[in-house]
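=== RUN LOG ===
request id: a7f3
mode: sequence -> structure
chains: 1
length: 310
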Amino acid sequence: MIIHPMSHPLNGVTPLPHLGVIAVQGDDAAGFLQGQLTQDFAQLGPNQARLAAYCTAKGRMLASFVGLQHAKGEILLVTSRDILPTALKRLSMFVLRAKARLRDASAEFDLYGVAGAAAESLTPELREPWSRTEAAGAAAVALYPADGQRRSLWVVPAGQPAPRGPALERQLWLWGDVRSGIATITAPIVETFVPQMLNYESVGGVNFKKGCYPGQEVVARSQFRGTLKRRAYLAHSPAQLQAGQEIFHESDASQPCGTVAQAAAAPTGGWDAIVSMQVALAQGGGLTAGASEGPALSIEPPPYPLLADV
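=== RESULT ===
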C-alpha cells in the first residue's frame, strides 16, 4: 500500500537550490520559444505560466521548463540546474537571426517552493495549475497539488525577502513534487521519454494546435495514432529509488518494462516515485526496481485524469 500522505501535510516555504533559470530576452523571445518547445508561448499572458518540454528531433525530452513572463520582452524558463548548461547551449544554437538573447539567470533570482496553508494565505487567487500572479515583488506560479495540498513556485529577484511562512523541509517539498505526479527532467533521464510517457499532454505540457517544434511529428503521432504504450504512474518501494533506475515485471526478468523518472524519500518510510512503464504491465503482477530480484514496487494511478480519459 502507498502511505497515507495526509498524515504528513505539506505546509511552509523552502528554497529550491536544485532549480535554475534561463532568461530569454528580446523582441522575438516568445516567437523563438514557440518554435522550440512543446507549449504555446506566443499566447503566453501575464497571468499564465507554461509547462513545456524541449525535445530532440525524435521527440525525446532533453529538458522540461516552467516558463513565465518576467518583463516586457523577457521570458524566464525554470529548469533543473544539472541540465541547465546543456539546454542553454543547445537552445542558443538555434537562435540564428531571431531577436532573442539567452543567458543563465540563476544568480539573478532565488527560487522557493510554497505549500499548504502558506500557499493559501499568500496567494489565495492561485487556484488553477500554471496560473501566475505577482506577490510582494515576486512571481508566483501555481503547481499541481500533492495529495490535495496546494503548491506554488516563487521566482524572487535575488536579495529580496523570501515568501513569508513556516520553514518546510526541502525533502518534504521534493516528496510533494513526486506525489504531484509531474516529473522534472534531470540528467539521469535526458532523452529517455517522449512527453506522453510522463503524461505531459494531460497536465498542460503539450499544445497540439501550435506550429512545428523539434520532435513535433513524433509527439503528435504518439498521441493520435495510438502508438503510446508507456505512461507515468506513482510508485512506492520500501527501498531507495532513484531517477534512471529500471523497472522489471515478473513476466520477463530479462527486459525492463519501465524507468524511474523521479523519486524522493517518503516521510513515513520507504520511497515514492514517478515511474514511466508499459501500460499493459502496470495493471498487476510483481514489479521490482533495479533488477528482477530487486525491491518490490507497488503502483497507483497518476493523481489527475489522463487526456484520453477526460
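=== NOTES ===
The two ends are 26 Å apart (CA to CA).
Confidence is low (pLDDT under 50) at residues 1-7.
=== END ===
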